[in-house]
Amino acid sequence: MSNAKYKLTGFNFIILWFGAAMSIAEIMTGGLLAPLGFKKGIIIILIGHVIGTTILIMGGIIGEEENLPAIKSTRISFGLYGSYLFSILNILQLVGWTAVMIISGGRSLNLISKTLWSFDNTTIWSIVIGLLICVWIALGSNGLKKLNIAAVILLFGLTIVLSFVVFKNGSLFTKEVVGDISVGTAIELNIIMPLSWLPLIADYTRNAKSKKGAVMGSWLGYFIGSSWMYIIGFTATVVFDNTDMGAIMMAANLGITALLIVGLSTVTTTFLDAYSAGITFLNIFPRAKEKYAAIIMAVIGMVIALIMPIEQYENFLYAIGSVFAPLFSVLFTDYFVIKKQKSIEDDVIVNFGAVIIWIIGIVLYYIFIKFDFIIGTTVPVMIITSIIYAVLWRWISKWKYVKKSQKSCQM
Question: Residues 140-156: what's their mean pLDDT?
């Protein structure tokens, strides 16, 4: 939409990304950092989010300047089929998030119901959440916007209540938490969360009224929102010795209100994951029905949630980092450093050179993660992947499979 009245302002972006960050997943991830202790934990959350949010915004800049959705922008470096591959990876990520949110929400609801009514069945609660997400999708966005807003308001209210509860507890500043986590791992867990939004941010910034508004609004909105959610999860876990949101809210004596907050916020947040997965599916199969594709994604996510142990959540986050860190490192190097092209070459089916460097980046990620660098794994992987691509691009840039009458692989 080119009409200026439909464009998003800086304030719109602040609200958009603050709301996107207001998620139980962010609170739950913050809880993993509790062994760091209060002072070190807060510092690392802020440092990690400065790095992660800045990387996220680079993807948004491409969307604003080129008016391209995020997945389509990968065609700049990887070609048409390359964008299809990353569409599949994004679908897997979003279905994975759907599963993680369903099982974590189901466990939280089960803990609350077990405490209140002695009803103990995580599977039933997970199915209930999954079915409600399908209903949300089937009914469409009309009439549900107010409920989505209500969910954000409820979760916002919850964070204020939890902030008051945990910060008034004197033990927060001195209590030691059982467990261990390194500084490098902690920073990585802060960087990975904004990284998971890279395949989506340009979908919004391409509709910005100005680049400054898109950059500053998105950066501030996500940084403030996500940092706050991490801090809430981190501090609540220190005080209550539990990363489960249901347990934390019951410890805060929220009672049945906790059930409503967890249920509604989980459904509305996870609905976005499943719906975005359906939309991404249409990038590969444009004739599919958007609503049906999204429902199928929700069902797949629900099935995975019923068989996947939530203990694998941290490994899921690392999988996101391993795939998307080198992917966007290649794109950023092409776009911001080499600047050999700033638009899509319609005849390029796949750029084998870029794909090879991306695969090298994935391998580097899993090698580097064993060294536990103090700055985390994402940053060194992105820097080294970028250097390799920048050094080799003149040689490998001709390794393309193209349309028309050209040879399959131009050398």
Answer: 63
Quote the tokens at residue 76.
């700049």
CA dist 124 → 133, 179, 382 (Å): 14, 31, 42
Q: Report yes or no: 155 and 288 within 8 Å, Cβ to Cβ.
A: no
CA of 11: how far to CAs of 3, 53, 109, in Å?
18, 17, 34
44-74 pLDDT per residue, tens: 999 999 999 999 999 999 989 988 877 788 8
Q: Which domains does the chain have, with CATH numbers?
A: 9-402 (1.10.4160.10)
DSSP 60-106: HHHHHHHT--HHHHTHHHHHHHHHHHHHHHHHHHHHHHHHHHHHHHH
Nearest to 197 by CA among 381, 406, 13, 391: 13
CA–CA distance, 82 with 355 (Å, rounded to integer): 8
pLDDT of 407 > 60? The answer is: no
pLDDT exceeds cutoff 70 at 242 = no
For residue 188, what is the DSSP state?
Answer: H
